């Protein structure tokens, strides 16, 4: 669905563009990312509003995305599967209560996974040079460590789910 919509939009833009340098495949890829993000945020926030957890849903999306931007992680081959999975986590996590002890456990596990695996699966999905990977790891660690100040269950759950995506079984 998202792939075909992005392809149609890219083709339309290419036809309407007078610039021969516009690459339809690059445009399609960018549109898939943009459409996926917009759909995830919009649908998640609507569901969050309907379930009385719109703020928590927004925090889940933002915290997961922030850590993912610098730590990388697993990518589905299908944009549709990515969308459904992202929406599911964004709307379910705010409804899962955790104890204070579990909050610390998730936070510690997230930190461990980020230290061990970040950044993960960045090549081919980013233009960041390998020389900067240690910086990405450092920023990822700082992001997770910051929650030791807040001890936010929402952040702990979002960081934990994101840190699991860093594990690359092919390593």
TrEMBL record:
Descriptive protein name: Post-translational modification of quorum-sensing peptide protein
Biological classification of the source: Bacteria, Bacillati, Bacillota, Bacilli, Bacillales
GO cellular component, one term: membrane
GO biological process assignments: proteolysis; quorum sensing
InterPro entries hit by this protein: AgrB
Keyword Membrane among record annotations: yes
GO molecular function, one term: peptidase activity
Coiled-coil regions listed in the entry: none
Record key words, sorted: Cell membrane, Hydrolase, Membrane, Protease, Quorum sensing, Transmembrane, Transmembrane helix
């Amino acid at each position: 669905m998202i792939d075909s919509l992005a392809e149609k939009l890219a083709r339309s833009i290419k036809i309407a563009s007078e610039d021969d340098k516009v690459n339809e495949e690059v445009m399609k890829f960018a549109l898939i990312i943009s459409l996926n993000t917009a759909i995830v945020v919009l649908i998640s926030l609507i569901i969050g509003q309907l379930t009385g957890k719109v703020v928590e849903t927004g925090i889940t999306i933002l915290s997961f995305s922030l850590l993912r931007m610098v730590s990388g992680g697993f990518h589905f081959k299908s944009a549709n599967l990515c969308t459904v999975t992202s929406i599911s986590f964004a709307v379910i996590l705010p409804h899962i209560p955790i104890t204070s002890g579990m909050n610390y456990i998730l936070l510690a596990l997230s930190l461990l996974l980020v230290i061990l695996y970040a950044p993960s699966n960045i090549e081919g999905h980013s233009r960041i040079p390998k020389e900067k990977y240690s910086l990405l790891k450092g920023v990822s660690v700082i992001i997770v460590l910051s929650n030791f100040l807040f001890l936010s269950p929402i952040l702990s759950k979002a960081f934990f789910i994101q840190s699991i995506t860093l594990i690359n079984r092919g390593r």
